[in-house]
Amino acid sequence: MHITDEKQWIAIMPVEDLPTGNMVGIDLGDLSIALYHLDDGSHHATSNVCTHGNALLTDGWLEGCNVECPLHGGCFEVKTGKGLCAPINKDLEIYPVRILDDMIYLAVDQKA
């Protein structure tokens, strides 16, 4: 059996439009994605919806490499999507990010 993991790279925005230490929410089809520019200069993307309370994470707080949900205070590590504290019981989905020619690109399944 041959399994392929087909991803589509989508240009999201110029790097300069997402300042260091900030995050922005992006809707791509049925996906709600949070894009982060961390203090270390790296870019990451996760689902923008908290796995506990269905709140938008970009309405919460980004501190270092952790995002805190505005609804019940659950935290996630944005590089891995790992839930860090209660009430989180499920990790976030993460999406590959790359920078090319000063543009931020995001990889999503082709069906998105």
Explain this structure to me?
This protein has strands spanning 7-14, 22-28, 31-37, 43-47, 61-63, 66-68, 75-77, 94-95, 97-100, 103-109. It is an all-beta fold and 112 residues long. It has one domain: Rieske Iron-sulfur Protein (3-layer Sandwich). The radius of gyration is 14 Å and the shape is globular.
Give me some keywords for this one.
single chain; 112 residues; mainly beta; Rieske Iron-sulfur Protein; four-stranded antiparallel sheet; three-stranded antiparallel sheet; 44% strand
Nutshell version of this structure?
This protein is mainly beta and 112 residues long.
Which CATH class? Mainly Beta
> What characteristic shape results from the CA principal axes?
globular
Overall structural domain count:
1
CATH topology heading? Rieske Iron-sulfur Protein
> How many beta-strand segments?
10
Rg value: 14 Å
CATH superfamily: Rieske [2Fe-2S] iron-sulphur domain
Poorly predicted regions are: none
User: Mind telling me which CATH architecture this is?
Assistant: 3-layer Sandwich
Physical arrangement of strands within the biggest beta sheet: 2-3-4-8
Mean pLDDT value: 93
Q: Ends: how far apart?
A: 24 Å
Figure out the total of helices: 0
Percent strand: 35-45%
Overall SS class? mainly beta
